[in-house]
Design brief:
single chain; about 375 residues; pyruvate-formate lyase- activating enzyme; three-stranded antiparallel sheet; 16 helices; 16 strands
Protein backbone atom coordinates (compact mmCIF):
# COMPACT_ATOMS: atom_id res chain seq x y z
CA UNK A 1 0.00 0.00 0.00
CA UNK A 2 1.26 3.47 -0.91
CA UNK A 3 2.43 5.43 2.13
CA UNK A 4 3.55 9.04 2.47
CA UNK A 5 7.35 9.11 2.92
CA UNK A 6 9.36 11.87 4.64
CA UNK A 7 8.87 15.32 3.12
CA UNK A 8 11.78 17.59 2.19
CA UNK A 9 11.92 21.05 0.61
CA UNK A 10 14.18 22.18 -2.21
CA UNK A 11 14.48 25.94 -2.80
CA UNK A 12 16.04 27.12 -6.07
CA UNK A 13 17.84 30.46 -6.39
CA UNK A 14 18.71 30.80 -10.08
CA UNK A 15 21.28 33.59 -10.33
CA UNK A 16 25.05 33.30 -10.77
CA UNK A 17 27.78 35.87 -11.39
CA UNK A 18 28.60 33.98 -14.60
CA UNK A 19 27.27 30.82 -16.27
CA UNK A 20 29.86 28.01 -16.09
CA UNK A 21 30.49 26.27 -19.45
CA UNK A 22 29.74 22.78 -18.05
CA UNK A 23 26.55 23.74 -16.15
CA UNK A 24 23.17 22.47 -17.35
CA UNK A 25 21.26 23.59 -14.24
CA UNK A 26 18.65 26.33 -14.48
CA UNK A 27 20.97 29.25 -13.76
CA UNK A 28 21.13 32.77 -15.15
CA UNK A 29 24.02 35.25 -15.19
CA UNK A 30 23.27 38.37 -13.18
CA UNK A 31 22.64 41.49 -15.25
CA UNK A 32 21.56 43.71 -12.36
CA UNK A 33 21.07 43.58 -8.60
CA UNK A 34 19.56 40.41 -7.13
CA UNK A 35 15.83 41.00 -6.45
CA UNK A 36 16.04 39.39 -3.00
CA UNK A 37 12.91 40.74 -1.35
CA UNK A 38 10.69 40.17 -4.39
CA UNK A 39 12.01 36.66 -4.98
CA UNK A 40 11.58 35.61 -1.34
CA UNK A 41 7.96 36.77 -1.48
CA UNK A 42 7.36 34.68 -4.60
CA UNK A 43 9.04 31.66 -3.01
CA UNK A 44 6.68 31.81 -0.06
CA UNK A 45 3.64 32.29 -2.31
CA UNK A 46 4.86 29.29 -4.33
CA UNK A 47 5.20 27.23 -1.14
CA UNK A 48 1.76 28.21 0.14
CA UNK A 49 0.18 27.17 -3.16
CA UNK A 50 1.83 23.73 -2.94
CA UNK A 51 0.81 23.27 0.68
CA UNK A 52 -2.80 23.99 -0.22
CA UNK A 53 -2.81 21.98 -3.46
CA UNK A 54 -1.37 18.83 -1.88
CA UNK A 55 -2.92 19.22 1.62
CA UNK A 56 0.47 19.26 3.36
CA UNK A 57 -0.47 21.19 6.50
CA UNK A 58 -0.06 18.16 8.76
CA UNK A 59 3.12 16.67 7.26
CA UNK A 60 6.34 17.48 9.15
CA UNK A 61 9.31 18.83 7.23
CA UNK A 62 12.35 16.55 7.15
CA UNK A 63 15.08 18.70 5.53
CA UNK A 64 15.64 21.90 3.53
CA UNK A 65 18.16 22.40 0.71
CA UNK A 66 18.78 25.82 -0.88
CA UNK A 67 20.47 25.30 -4.24
CA UNK A 68 21.12 27.12 -7.46
CA UNK A 69 22.53 28.99 -9.17
CA UNK A 70 24.47 30.62 -6.39
CA UNK A 71 22.30 30.98 -3.26
CA UNK A 72 25.19 32.61 -1.40
CA UNK A 73 24.67 35.70 -3.58
CA UNK A 74 21.68 36.41 -1.33
CA UNK A 75 22.29 38.32 1.87
CA UNK A 76 22.22 36.52 5.20
CA UNK A 77 19.19 38.64 6.12
CA UNK A 78 17.25 37.42 3.06
CA UNK A 79 18.10 33.78 3.79
CA UNK A 80 17.05 34.20 7.43
CA UNK A 81 13.74 35.80 6.39
CA UNK A 82 13.09 32.97 3.94
CA UNK A 83 13.86 30.21 6.44
CA UNK A 84 11.81 31.84 9.19
CA UNK A 85 8.74 31.97 6.97
CA UNK A 86 9.23 28.39 5.73
CA UNK A 87 9.63 26.90 9.19
CA UNK A 88 6.53 28.72 10.48
CA UNK A 89 4.51 26.60 8.07
CA UNK A 90 5.67 23.11 9.14
CA UNK A 91 6.28 20.98 12.15
CA UNK A 92 9.98 20.16 12.24
CA UNK A 93 12.75 18.98 14.51
CA UNK A 94 14.80 21.67 16.21
CA UNK A 95 17.86 20.05 14.63
CA UNK A 96 16.42 20.02 11.09
CA UNK A 97 19.16 19.80 8.44
CA UNK A 98 19.21 23.03 6.40
CA UNK A 99 21.81 23.09 3.61
CA UNK A 100 22.87 26.09 1.56
CA UNK A 101 25.07 25.90 -1.53
CA UNK A 102 27.83 28.49 -1.59
CA UNK A 103 30.60 29.59 -3.91
CA UNK A 104 34.02 30.11 -2.33
CA UNK A 105 34.62 33.63 -3.62
CA UNK A 106 35.64 35.98 -0.82
CA UNK A 107 32.43 38.05 -0.90
CA UNK A 108 30.19 35.00 -0.38
CA UNK A 109 32.53 33.32 2.11
CA UNK A 110 32.42 36.30 4.45
CA UNK A 111 28.67 35.76 4.77
CA UNK A 112 29.02 32.26 6.21
CA UNK A 113 28.61 33.29 9.84
CA UNK A 114 25.50 35.26 8.89
CA UNK A 115 23.99 32.23 7.18
CA UNK A 116 24.74 30.13 10.26
CA UNK A 117 23.08 32.67 12.56
CA UNK A 118 20.11 32.81 10.16
CA UNK A 119 19.36 29.10 10.50
CA UNK A 120 21.59 27.32 7.99
CA UNK A 121 23.11 24.22 9.61
CA UNK A 122 25.10 22.83 6.67
CA UNK A 123 27.06 24.39 3.81
CA UNK A 124 27.88 22.81 0.46
CA UNK A 125 30.85 24.67 -1.03
CA UNK A 126 31.36 24.45 -4.79
CA UNK A 127 35.13 24.08 -4.95
CA UNK A 128 35.33 21.82 -8.08
CA UNK A 129 39.17 21.88 -7.99
CA UNK A 130 42.07 23.32 -6.00
CA UNK A 131 44.13 24.01 -9.11
CA UNK A 132 43.69 27.54 -10.42
CA UNK A 133 44.34 26.60 -14.06
CA UNK A 134 41.60 23.95 -13.89
CA UNK A 135 39.22 26.47 -12.30
CA UNK A 136 39.84 28.87 -15.19
CA UNK A 137 39.03 26.13 -17.72
CA UNK A 138 35.81 25.42 -15.80
CA UNK A 139 34.83 29.09 -15.89
CA UNK A 140 34.89 29.42 -12.10
CA UNK A 141 35.32 32.90 -10.63
CA UNK A 142 37.37 31.86 -7.59
CA UNK A 143 40.95 30.69 -7.29
CA UNK A 144 42.64 27.94 -5.29
CA UNK A 145 43.40 30.11 -2.26
CA UNK A 146 39.79 31.30 -2.03
CA UNK A 147 38.60 27.70 -2.19
CA UNK A 148 40.80 26.76 0.77
CA UNK A 149 39.85 29.90 2.68
CA UNK A 150 36.13 29.16 2.24
CA UNK A 151 36.51 25.71 3.79
CA UNK A 152 38.58 27.08 6.68
CA UNK A 153 36.04 29.84 7.31
CA UNK A 154 33.11 27.41 7.24
CA UNK A 155 34.80 25.36 9.94
CA UNK A 156 35.77 28.34 12.10
CA UNK A 157 32.42 30.17 12.02
CA UNK A 158 30.53 27.36 13.72
CA UNK A 159 29.20 25.34 10.78
CA UNK A 160 30.92 22.07 11.60
CA UNK A 161 28.86 20.19 9.01
CA UNK A 162 29.98 21.16 5.54
CA UNK A 163 30.46 19.56 2.16
CA UNK A 164 33.15 20.21 -0.42
CA UNK A 165 31.99 19.66 -3.98
CA UNK A 166 34.79 18.34 -6.22
CA UNK A 167 35.01 17.16 -9.82
CA UNK A 168 37.48 14.85 -11.52
CA UNK A 169 38.10 14.03 -15.15
CA UNK A 170 38.70 17.73 -15.85
CA UNK A 171 40.21 19.12 -19.06
CA UNK A 172 43.90 18.09 -19.29
CA UNK A 173 43.77 16.55 -15.80
CA UNK A 174 46.05 13.60 -15.02
CA UNK A 175 45.95 11.13 -12.14
CA UNK A 176 48.38 13.16 -10.01
CA UNK A 177 46.32 16.35 -10.42
CA UNK A 178 43.09 14.61 -9.45
CA UNK A 179 44.60 12.91 -6.39
CA UNK A 180 46.19 16.20 -5.29
CA UNK A 181 42.69 17.70 -5.25
CA UNK A 182 41.42 14.86 -3.06
CA UNK A 183 44.42 15.12 -0.72
CA UNK A 184 43.91 18.88 -0.35
CA UNK A 185 40.20 18.43 0.31
CA UNK A 186 40.88 15.82 3.00
CA UNK A 187 43.40 18.15 4.68
CA UNK A 188 40.63 20.75 5.13
CA UNK A 189 38.67 18.21 7.23
CA UNK A 190 35.15 18.53 5.76
CA UNK A 191 32.53 16.23 7.23
CA UNK A 192 31.30 15.41 3.72
CA UNK A 193 32.74 15.24 0.22
CA UNK A 194 30.92 15.06 -3.11
CA UNK A 195 33.36 13.75 -5.74
CA UNK A 196 32.12 13.08 -9.24
CA UNK A 197 33.27 12.97 -12.82
CA UNK A 198 32.75 15.93 -15.14
CA UNK A 199 30.29 15.00 -17.87
CA UNK A 200 29.50 16.99 -20.99
CA UNK A 201 25.78 17.79 -20.98
CA UNK A 202 23.61 19.01 -23.87
CA UNK A 203 22.81 22.73 -24.04
CA UNK A 204 26.08 23.77 -22.41
CA UNK A 205 29.06 25.70 -23.77
CA UNK A 206 31.23 22.60 -23.32
CA UNK A 207 28.82 20.63 -25.50
CA UNK A 208 29.20 23.03 -28.41
CA UNK A 209 32.97 23.39 -27.88
CA UNK A 210 34.07 20.15 -26.15
CA UNK A 211 37.34 20.32 -24.17
CA UNK A 212 39.82 17.45 -24.25
CA UNK A 213 39.07 15.15 -21.32
CA UNK A 214 41.12 12.25 -19.90
CA UNK A 215 40.84 8.82 -21.51
CA UNK A 216 38.59 6.19 -19.91
CA UNK A 217 41.55 4.20 -18.56
CA UNK A 218 42.84 7.28 -16.74
CA UNK A 219 39.35 8.01 -15.39
CA UNK A 220 39.07 4.50 -13.91
CA UNK A 221 42.50 4.87 -12.27
CA UNK A 222 41.56 8.27 -10.83
CA UNK A 223 38.37 6.82 -9.40
CA UNK A 224 39.93 3.69 -7.89
CA UNK A 225 42.86 5.52 -6.31
CA UNK A 226 40.64 8.37 -5.11
CA UNK A 227 38.25 5.93 -3.44
CA UNK A 228 41.21 4.36 -1.62
CA UNK A 229 42.46 7.74 -0.37
CA UNK A 230 39.03 8.71 0.92
CA UNK A 231 38.53 5.39 2.69
CA UNK A 232 41.96 5.63 4.31
CA UNK A 233 41.03 9.11 5.61
CA UNK A 234 37.84 7.77 7.23
CA UNK A 235 35.28 8.81 4.61
CA UNK A 236 32.61 6.21 3.96
CA UNK A 237 31.13 6.02 0.47
CA UNK A 238 27.38 5.78 0.99
CA UNK A 239 26.30 6.82 -2.51
CA UNK A 240 27.85 6.86 -6.00
CA UNK A 241 29.51 10.24 -5.54
CA UNK A 242 28.98 10.98 -1.82
CA UNK A 243 31.46 10.34 1.00
CA UNK A 244 31.11 11.31 4.64
CA UNK A 245 32.54 10.90 8.08
CA UNK A 246 30.28 8.55 10.10
CA UNK A 247 27.03 10.27 11.02
CA UNK A 248 27.43 13.17 8.58
CA UNK A 249 25.58 11.82 5.55
CA UNK A 250 23.41 14.38 3.74
CA UNK A 251 19.90 13.57 4.96
CA UNK A 252 18.26 15.68 2.26
CA UNK A 253 19.87 13.75 -0.58
CA UNK A 254 19.27 10.42 1.15
CA UNK A 255 15.56 11.25 1.16
CA UNK A 256 15.73 11.80 -2.62
CA UNK A 257 17.51 8.48 -3.15
CA UNK A 258 15.12 6.58 -0.88
CA UNK A 259 12.28 7.83 -3.09
CA UNK A 260 11.04 10.26 -0.47
CA UNK A 261 8.86 13.29 -1.18
CA UNK A 262 10.12 16.79 -1.79
CA UNK A 263 8.54 20.10 -2.62
CA UNK A 264 10.41 22.18 -5.18
CA UNK A 265 9.94 25.94 -5.08
CA UNK A 266 11.71 28.56 -7.16
CA UNK A 267 12.52 28.98 -10.87
CA UNK A 268 12.45 25.66 -12.73
CA UNK A 269 12.46 23.57 -9.56
CA UNK A 270 11.13 20.01 -9.61
CA UNK A 271 9.13 18.28 -6.90
CA UNK A 272 7.70 14.83 -6.13
CA UNK A 273 4.63 14.42 -3.93
CA UNK A 274 2.80 11.27 -2.82
CA UNK A 275 -0.98 11.26 -2.46
CA UNK A 276 -1.67 8.05 -0.50
CA UNK A 277 -5.42 8.74 -0.27
CA UNK A 278 -5.84 8.57 -4.05
CA UNK A 279 -2.88 6.21 -4.56
CA UNK A 280 -1.03 8.66 -6.84
CA UNK A 281 2.45 10.14 -7.16
CA UNK A 282 2.92 13.53 -8.82
CA UNK A 283 5.86 15.41 -10.30
CA UNK A 284 5.81 19.21 -10.28
CA UNK A 285 7.84 21.65 -12.39
CA UNK A 286 7.81 25.37 -11.72
CA UNK A 287 8.12 28.23 -14.23
CA UNK A 288 11.70 28.17 -15.47
CA UNK A 289 12.74 31.74 -16.27
CA UNK A 290 13.01 34.35 -13.49
CA UNK A 291 11.02 36.89 -15.51
CA UNK A 292 8.10 34.46 -15.84
CA UNK A 293 8.40 33.22 -12.25
CA UNK A 294 8.22 36.80 -10.94
CA UNK A 295 5.22 37.63 -13.16
CA UNK A 296 2.32 38.14 -10.74
CA UNK A 297 -0.24 37.42 -13.49
CA UNK A 298 0.68 33.72 -13.71
CA UNK A 299 0.94 30.85 -11.24
CA UNK A 300 4.31 29.39 -10.32
CA UNK A 301 3.36 25.80 -11.17
CA UNK A 302 4.13 25.15 -14.83
CA UNK A 303 3.61 21.36 -15.10
CA UNK A 304 1.84 18.78 -12.93
CA UNK A 305 2.52 15.20 -14.02
CA UNK A 306 1.09 12.00 -12.58
CA UNK A 307 3.73 9.25 -12.57
CA UNK A 308 2.26 6.14 -14.17
CA UNK A 309 2.48 2.66 -12.66
CA UNK A 310 4.62 1.59 -15.63
CA UNK A 311 7.19 4.28 -14.86
CA UNK A 312 7.44 3.69 -11.11
CA UNK A 313 9.79 0.66 -11.02
CA UNK A 314 12.44 2.56 -12.98
CA UNK A 315 11.80 5.81 -11.08
CA UNK A 316 12.28 4.02 -7.76
CA UNK A 317 15.38 2.09 -8.82
CA UNK A 318 16.97 5.10 -10.55
CA UNK A 319 17.10 6.73 -7.11
CA UNK A 320 17.45 3.78 -4.74
CA UNK A 321 20.30 2.04 -6.53
CA UNK A 322 22.57 5.07 -6.10
CA UNK A 323 22.89 4.17 -2.42
CA UNK A 324 25.33 1.56 -1.13
CA UNK A 325 23.01 0.50 1.69
CA UNK A 326 20.65 -2.44 1.33
CA UNK A 327 16.88 -2.07 1.01
CA UNK A 328 13.91 -4.34 1.48
CA UNK A 329 11.02 -4.84 -0.88
CA UNK A 330 8.50 -3.69 1.71
CA UNK A 331 9.92 -0.22 1.19
CA UNK A 332 9.42 -0.60 -2.55
CA UNK A 333 5.74 -1.45 -1.99
CA UNK A 334 5.24 1.46 0.43
CA UNK A 335 6.99 4.05 -1.77
CA UNK A 336 5.43 2.99 -5.10
CA UNK A 337 2.14 1.31 -4.14
CA UNK A 338 3.08 -1.60 -6.40
CA UNK A 339 3.46 -5.30 -5.69
CA UNK A 340 6.99 -6.70 -5.34
CA UNK A 341 6.16 -8.92 -8.30
CA UNK A 342 6.49 -5.87 -10.55
CA UNK A 343 10.21 -5.72 -9.83
CA UNK A 344 11.34 -9.07 -8.38
CA UNK A 345 11.95 -10.81 -11.75
CA UNK A 346 14.23 -7.95 -12.80
CA UNK A 347 16.14 -8.19 -9.53
CA UNK A 348 16.64 -11.91 -9.99
CA UNK A 349 18.06 -11.39 -13.49
CA UNK A 350 20.37 -8.67 -12.14
CA UNK A 351 21.47 -11.08 -9.42
CA UNK A 352 22.33 -13.73 -12.01
CA UNK A 353 24.50 -11.14 -13.78
CA UNK A 354 26.25 -10.28 -10.48
CA UNK A 355 24.91 -6.73 -10.60
CA UNK A 356 22.72 -7.12 -7.49
CA UNK A 357 23.19 -9.00 -4.22
CA UNK A 358 20.36 -10.70 -2.33
CA UNK A 359 21.32 -10.80 1.34
CA UNK A 360 20.40 -13.62 3.71
CA UNK A 361 17.89 -11.35 5.51
CA UNK A 362 15.98 -10.80 2.25
CA UNK A 363 17.31 -7.31 1.58
CA UNK A 364 18.91 -6.25 -1.70
CA UNK A 365 21.85 -4.06 -2.60
CA UNK A 366 23.95 -3.15 -5.61
CA UNK A 367 27.15 -5.14 -6.06
CA UNK A 368 30.51 -3.50 -6.74
CA UNK A 369 30.13 -4.57 -10.37
CA UNK A 370 26.62 -3.12 -10.43
CA UNK A 371 27.88 0.28 -9.28
CA UNK A 372 30.49 0.28 -12.02
CA UNK A 373 27.87 -0.55 -14.65
CA UNK A 374 24.94 1.23 -13.05
CA UNK A 375 23.43 2.47 -16.33
CA UNK A 376 23.28 -1.11 -17.63
CA UNK A 377 21.68 -2.20 -14.38
CA UNK A 378 19.06 0.55 -14.49
CA UNK A 379 18.08 -0.33 -18.06
CA UNK A 380 16.85 -3.66 -16.72
CA UNK A 381 14.01 -1.87 -14.93
CA UNK A 382 12.70 0.08 -17.92
Amino acid sequence: MLQAPPLSLYIHIPWCVEKCPYCDFNSHALKSAVPEEEYVKHLIDDLDADIEKFSLNNRPLHTIFIGGGTPSLFSAQAIESLLTQVLERFEHKETIEITLEANPGTVEAEKFIGFFNGGVSRLSIGVQSFESDKLIKLGRIHDSNQAKRAAELAYSCGIKTFNLDLMHGLPQQNIANALDDITTAISLNPTHLSWYQLTIEPNTAFHSRPPKLPEDEVLWDIQDQGFALLAEAGYQQYEISAFSKPGFECQHNINYWQFGDYLGIGCGSHGKITDPVNNKIFRTIKVKHPKGYLDTSRQHLDHLIEVSAEELPFEYMMNRLRLHESFNLNEYEQRTGLSVETVLPNLMIAKQKNLMIENTDGTWQVSKLGHRYLNDLLEMFL
